[in-house]
Design a protein that fits this description.
The structure holds 2 protein chains of 2 kinds. Chain A is an alpha/beta fold. Chain A has 11 helices and 13 strands. Chain A has helices at residues 52-59, 83-86, 102-113, 118-126, 142-154, 172-187, 199-205, 223-228, 243-251, 272-282, 296-303, and strands spanning 14-22, 27-36, 41-45, 67-72, 87-90, 160-164, 191-196, 208-213, 216-222, 236-239, 256-259, 264-268, 288-291. In chain A, the strands form 3 sheets. Chain A has a 6-stranded mixed β-sheet, sandwiched between helices. In chain A, helix 9 packs across helix 10. The longest helix of chain A has 16 residues, at 172-187. Chain A is elongated. Chain B is mostly helical. Chain B has helices spanning 2-12, 16-43, 52-62, 64-72, 76-96, 100-106, 110-146, 156-182, 186-215, 227-235, 246-270. Classes of the chains: A alpha/beta, B mainly alpha. The complex binds adenosine-5'-diphosphate and magnesium ion. Adenosine-5'-diphosphate binds at residues 23, 26, 28, 46, 48-54, 311 of chain A.
Chain lengths: 311, 274
Amino acid sequence: MTDGQRSPTSDGQIVVSGLTKQYKNVRAVNDLSFTVAPGRVTGFLGPNGAGKTTTLRMLLNLVTPTSGTATISGHRYADLSDPLRHVGAVLEASSAHKGRTGINHLRVICAAAGLPKQRADEVLALVGLSPAAKRKFKGYSLGMKQRLGIAAAMLGDPRVLILDEPANGLDPEGIRWMRGFLKNLAHEGRTVLVSSHLLSEMQLLADDVVIIAAGQLVRQGPVEQVLGSMAQSARVRVRTPQAEALTAALKAQSATIETDEQGVLLVAGVDAPTIGRAALAAGVELHELTTERPDLERVFLELTAGKAGIR
Amino acid sequence: MNLVRSELLKIRTTNTWWIFALISLPLWALTLLINWLQADALTSNNLGDLSAEEAAQVAAVASVDALSSNLFTTGQFFGLLIVMLLGIIVVTSEFFHQTVTTTFLTNPHRTAVMSAKLVAAGVLALLFWLVTTALNLVAGSAVLNAVGLDSQLGNDAAWRAIGLNLLAYLLWAVFGVGIGVLIRSQIGATVTGILLYLGGSIGAIFVIAILAERWGDWINNLQLLVPSLASSLMVAGADIPGNPPRWAGAAVLIGYAVVTGVVGTLLMRRRDIS
Ligand SMILES: Nc1ncnc2c1ncn2[C@@H]1O[C@H](COP(=O)(O)OP(=O)(O)O)[C@@H](O)[C@H]1O
Ligand SMILES: [Mg+2]
């Protein structure tokens, strides 16, 4: 990337501020604010219907906000002088004319954006789609469609990449490819914002996460920090032949306890050393004492509990 | 300019345009046949007994000006339908194939994009007109010769009709784009367009004829308000007694095109693409 040539204002930062979208019956996005930093992959997470797509579309000037602003490098999308050279976006996998070939789809975009025609061939090679260049879009697999979308987004060699659920419908190999591709782009100093409801995927990909539910911000920050902020609710798995005695001892410490299988307690609210000391004091024998690392999936479900689902 | 190039490339890279061209050809041949038979009938003077008024009307359409104008604009009836449908597709295919997102990401200035679409539809209309007119000059001259007249290639009235025919093609293409914006569904817009064009003109002729019978001849002027009738009036080779003047047809048609074009663009500016 030729970051050095860019003006200081073209910092690649995305700023969403007080963004709200009221549809007839639904407040799809509700006073949402967050920032996305360049050089990192930011996962934009939320259950289905949380408002991710609506937010991204407002950011890209496709949907008009009811109130609030969304800027990229300090500009609204419509005010960017050369939007494709600054921002690449992949919104739907199926967004090409069924009867048009992949290469022609890209050439149409090149023509409109004033980009040289060869860029179409270059980006096809970049996403490994050159062999299918002259095939019609209707013959593409879902994975190929997704790659074509990414190719289109890369036409202008943009500083900022925005992808809406790019992993949808991809096979494991495709997902692995995408992960490597996006991480690499972030390494080059670009801003990468990826939405998903698949948290397992984000855990492997994202540096930062922005979590929303019911149109509102739930949490934002580096992945570890968001996980860390949930550490107090991390559970400890305890295996003991004297479950009743230990339960009684821990209840005194105001821990919450669930029983899993026979002789296994899942303890929340206290940490492992505290449990160990309580067991020692009560003369309870322990066979296992493990702090379960909270995974993003669980954090996410807890954070968005009660707000998920159909609205 | 880039946008217009892109829009034309969109059309060129799908099979829509040549499918429409293929459909147009037999329809053109059909209208040529009809025009030939009509020219033959009008020049052979055996139309039977006519009232004085009818005789004046026949004289007007049987004049060389009117005959040659009619022949050199052969194919207009279906040609206008075809370019209107192309105009519709220029817009609705973006929604049908969900490419409108990419289009507006590539250029977020929607007025510019819509203008490019209007221009591209106009260019298509121009091409259809060019090819049709080339065919008409050859075939029309042949028919004129066959009914015992000169080719009329130097006839001013005929050339005026050819020019107005171009105007009609352009306006109907713009009209189509407007319909496409108003009705985003590809099928819905196409069906509406066809009904408006065919049903509208046939129904209107019928209704207006009945009304004129009942309320008097001035009702005939209402046919101006029916776009397809206005356009055929506009390209008629000569003013026909009892019909509104040709310039009025042109004015009405331009009015329709401007309104649909502007309203379509304004709607597209405000619309959420989600
Ligand atoms: N064009 C629209 N009209 C009305 N409601 C909409 C529209 N688009 C989205 N919504 C509603 O807004 C909410 C958020 O949708 P969306 O942004 O697509 O969520 P996500 O992408 O996170 O799944 C949902 O309840 C959805 O039904
Ligand atoms: Mg979505």
